[in-house]
C-alpha cells in the first residue's frame, strides 16, 4: 500500500491452478502453492488462485537517487530486502537473471549453503517474512479481487493474466479488504482460466472449467503474459 500511496502503480498478476483434490503429502511444490493461494471455482472444477501485486515503472526505480543510493532504504519494500534471494524454496538462484550488478550483492561470497540457508541474516529474515506474508495475505487478495471484479487468471506454469486497475481504485479495494467488517461480495466467485495453447484449452474445457484463449484477453487494463509458446485461437 505504501507504494500506491507514494504515487506508484501496481499491477495484479493472477494465475489459477485446477485443484480437483489435494495432492499427496510429499508433493511439497504443490503444497507451497496451496499455502499462498485461495480456493475458488471455474465452472464445475475447484481451483486455487495465486495473486501477486507487482510494482510497475518504466526505466530505473523511481526511488533511485543520482548517487545510485536508494531514497527509501529504511522503508524499502520486502521484495527489495529479499534481493538477491529467491522466495520460492524450489527455485535456484540464477546470477545471470539478476538485474542488479553482481557487485551490488557480493557475487563472490557464499549466498546460500547446501541446506538452502542464506548467509545474510537480513536476507534470510526477509525471505521468511515474505513467505509468511504470502500465506497470511492470500485471503486479503481474494477480497481485493472480489472488490475489483477480477476473476480471470492464467493457467499456472503457462502464463498469468495481468490486471492494471487505476491506482485509487486498487488502493480503495486494498483498504476495504483489510477491513474485517467490510463486505466485498463472494470471494469464491467463478473464475475463468486463460491459456494460449489449444490443446490445454481443450483439456480445461473437458474438465468443466470456464476457459478463454489468450486472444480473447487484452482490453480494459487486462492482458495475458504467456510463459510458453502456444497456438490457441
Q: How would you explain this protein's 3D organization?
A:
This protein has helices spanning 2-5, 28-35, 78-82, 121-136, 138-148, 167-178, 198-206, and strands at 9-18, 38-42, 45-56, 152-155, 159-163, 192-195, 211-213, 222-226. It has 233 residues and is of the alpha/beta class. Strand 6 (192-195), helix 7 and strand 7 (211-213) form a beta-alpha-beta unit. The longest helix has 16 residues, at 121-136. Strands 1, 2, 3, 4, 5, 6, 7 and 8 form an 8-stranded mixed β-sheet that branches. The relative contact order is 0.19. The model has no long low-confidence stretch (mean pLDDT 86).
Write the layout of secondary structure elements.
Blueprint: H1 2-5, E1 9-18, H2 28-35, E2 38-42, E3 45-56, H3 78-82, H4 121-136, H5 138-148, E4 152-155, E5 159-163, H6 167-178, E6 192-195, H7 198-206, E7 211-213, E8 222-226
Parallel strand pairs: 1-4, 4-6, 6-7
Antiparallel strand pairs: 1-3, 1-5, 2-3, 5-8
Which terms summarize this structure?
233 residues, alpha/beta, eight-stranded mixed sheet, 7 helices, 8 strands, 21% strand, globular
Amino acid at each position: 500500500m505504501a507504494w500506491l500511496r507514494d504515487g506508484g502503480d501496481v499491477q495484479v498478476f493472477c494465475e489459477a491452478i485446477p485443484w480437483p483434490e489435494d495432492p499427496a503429502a510429499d508433493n511439497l511444490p504443490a503444497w507451497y502453492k496451496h499455502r499462498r493461494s485461495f480456493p475458488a471455482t471455474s465452472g464445475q472444477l475447484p481451483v486455487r488462485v495465486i495473486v501477486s501485486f507487482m510494482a510497475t515503472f518504466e526505466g530505473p526505480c523511481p526511488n533511485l537517487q543520482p548517487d545510485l543510493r536508494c531514497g527509501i532504504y529504511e522503508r524499502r519494500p520486502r521484495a527489495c530486502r529479499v534481493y538477491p534471494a529467491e522466495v520460492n524454496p524450489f527455485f535456484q538462484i540464477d546470477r545471470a537473471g539478476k538485474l542488479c550488478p553482481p557487485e551490488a550483492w557480493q557475487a563472490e561470497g557464499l549466498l546460500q549453503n547446501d541446506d538452502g540457508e542464506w548467509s545474510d541474516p537480513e536476507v534470510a529474515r526477509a525471505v521468511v517474512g515474505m513467505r509468511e506474508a504470502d500465506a497470511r495475505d492470500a485471503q486479503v487478495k481474494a477480497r481485493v479481487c472480489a472488490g475489483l471484479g477480477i476473476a480471470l487468471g492464467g493457467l499456472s506454469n503457462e502464463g498469468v493474466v495481468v490486471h492494471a486497475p487505476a491506482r485509487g481504485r486498487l488502493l480503495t479495494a486494498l483498504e476495504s479488504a483489510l477491513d474485517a467488517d467490510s463486505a466485498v461480495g463472494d470471494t469464491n466467485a467463478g473464475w475463468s482460466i486463460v491459456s494460449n495453447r489449444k490443446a490445454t484449452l481443450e483439456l480445461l474445457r473437458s474438465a468443466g472449467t470456464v476457459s478463454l484463449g489468450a486472444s480473447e484477453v487484452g482490453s480494459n487494463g487486462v492482458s495475458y503474459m504467456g510463459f510458453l509458446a502456444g497456438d490457441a485461437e
